[in-house]
Amino acid sequence: MPRIRPLAWANSVAGRGLISDPAGPPSLVITYVLDVGDRVAFIDAGLLERIGVDQAEIKREAFRNVEVIFPRAAVQPLLGTKDIAMIKKKDSYDATRLLAVPAALSPGQELFAVIPDDDTLALVGTSDWLPKLKELAVEWYGSAEDEKKITSEVLRVAPEGISVAVVR
Fold first, then answer.
1. Are 101 and 75 in contact (CB under 8 A)?
2. pLDDT tens across 61-116, in order?
3. How far apart are CA 118 and CA 121, in angstroms?
4. Which of 25, 97, 147, 166 is the 20 to 30 Å CA partner of 123?
C-alpha cells in the first residue's frame, strides 16, 4: 500500500533507505508499506532487492490496492457542490485514499481535499469553500496525534495530479 507522509518525516528517516515518490505538493511524499496485521512495515531498497521487484512495480501494485479501497462513487456527486465528503474508515489509509481521486476525475474536473492526518480525508467539490476548508485543515491538523500528522494545506485534485490549492 502507498502511504502519504510529510517531507519532514521522510527527511528524518532518510538514512533508512525507504523508497518514496513525489506526492505532488513539495511538502509531501509517497512511501510504500507492507500491511502486516496490526502494523505496517515500510519498504526499503533492501527489501526490493530481496524480493526481486523494482520500485515501479511496487508503485503500480500499491496504487491498484488503494483504488480498490477508495469509494469512487463519492466523487462525481461532489463536483461543483459545497457538499463535503468525509472518509474516515479509521484503518490508517484514509489520507492515502486521496491518491485514487485523480483517476476518478475526467479532464477539466477538480476537487479540493484536506488530509490533516492518516485517518482523515475530506473532499469538497467547489473552490467557494476553500477558506473554510483551510480553517478546518488547520484545526484538525492541530488536534491530530503527532505521529499521524500529514499537512494543514488544502490540496487541489485534478486528473493530472495533486497540488497545493491557492486559498484567498
1. yes
2. 999 999 998 888 889 999 999 899 998 888 888 999 999 999 999 999 999 999 99
3. 8
4. 147
CA distance 129 to 106: 21
Point out which residues pair with 123 in neighbouring strands.
Answer: 85, 113
DSSP annotation string for the chain = -EEEEEHHHHHHTGGG-B-EEE-SSTTEEEEEEEEETTEEEE-BHHHHHHHT--HHHHHHHHHHHHHHHS-GGGTGGGTTSS-EEEE---SS-TGGGGGGTGGGS-TT--EEEE-SBTT-EEEES-GGGHHHHHHHHHHHHHHS-GGGB-----EEEETTEEEE----
Number of Cα atoms under 13 Å in the Cβ half of residue 30: 23
Cα-flanking dihedrals φ and ψ of residue 131, to 5°? -60, -45
Q: pTM here?
A: 0.91
